[in-house]
Amino acid sequence: MKSLAKLKKIKGDASFREFYRNKQNKSIVVVSKKERSKNLLIYDAINKILIKNKILAPNLLRENYINNYIEIQDFGDQTLFEILKNKKNNKFITFKKIVKILNKIQSIKDKKIKNFKNKFYKVQVYKNKILFDEAKLFCDWYVPKILSKSKSVQFKKKFRLEIKKLLSKLNYKNVTFVHRDFHVSNLMYHNKKIAVIDTQDALIGNRAYDLASLIDDVRLKTPNELKDKVFKFYVKTNKKINLEKFKKDFEILSVLRNLKIIGIFMRLASRDNKKKYLKLIPYAWEMINHRIKEQNEFNNLMLLLKNNFPKFIR
Length: 314
Fold this sequence. Notes:
This protein has helices at residues 36-52, 80-85, 91-106, 128-135, 137-146, 149-168, 209-215, 224-236, 243-272, 281-291, 299-308, and strands at 8-10, 18-22, 27-31, 60-64, 69-73, 112-114, 120-122, 176-178, 187-190, 193-196, 203-205. By secondary structure, the chain is of the alpha+beta class. The protein has a single domain (78-308), classed as Aminoglycoside phosphotransferase (APH), C-terminal lobe (Aminoglycoside 3'-phosphotransferase, Chain: A, domain 2). The chain has a five-stranded antiparallel beta sheet with strand order 1-2-3-5-4, with helices on one face. A two-stranded antiparallel sheet has the order 6-7. Strands 8-11 form a two-stranded antiparallel ribbon. The longest helix is centred in the C-terminal third of the chain and has 30 residues, at 243-272. The termini are far apart.
């Protein structure tokens, strides 16, 4: 392989990875010194599971784990985010295609696969403890920037209690393959097909989670009517779903995910000097505000957020 200096560095994401395009090989070189196991070894293992289940994901071309990189198939530059941003496109038709891909992902039964080190990797379970720790990122990174020290302490105590209560109300068991960052920037349009990238965080969890990350995606503003249409289409394609229970899980996970995202974006700005994500925080609040009015289970959390962040919770 050419030295990295001769390759074109391409736009990265919020992870510790760097990406380089090797035009000669039609490939992407993924470099990761931090969190190497997750970003290279596990990333490829999850991709192998997807490929095995006839879902388009980057194929491994070669690995050089000892030197912190792998080389994978290049799907080009066109994300579904780019397609959906175009006002002329029929967004609902595109979302229907994405929901069909999500249904395929959710039908995956494989939980174990051999990685390129010839060792078995088992996909872990998305336990409530992980969901709780993720929502807590809101407290760890965002709250101290906005509230005084004494207010922060009070808020954190009440917030943790409310999150635990919400998690105890989830109906669906952790039995579904969850991408965990299933949004339109992680879906590529390649040879007239949808390909899935950024898969390294996949877990076995609640079937409502990926739908919540798709519909309430902080990067792409969509009208509530479209959000509802996509939700209804998903339900229509999954006949065995109990609508009331599923909707409740969807709303809880959407609120928790967007609280997590606000925390992550503040952490990226404060710790990693990646400030471009801060501009997305108001829309994350907007979606929390929209979902939190949907069910009585949110009453206490709504009051808590309203008292401390009145600018965002109306």
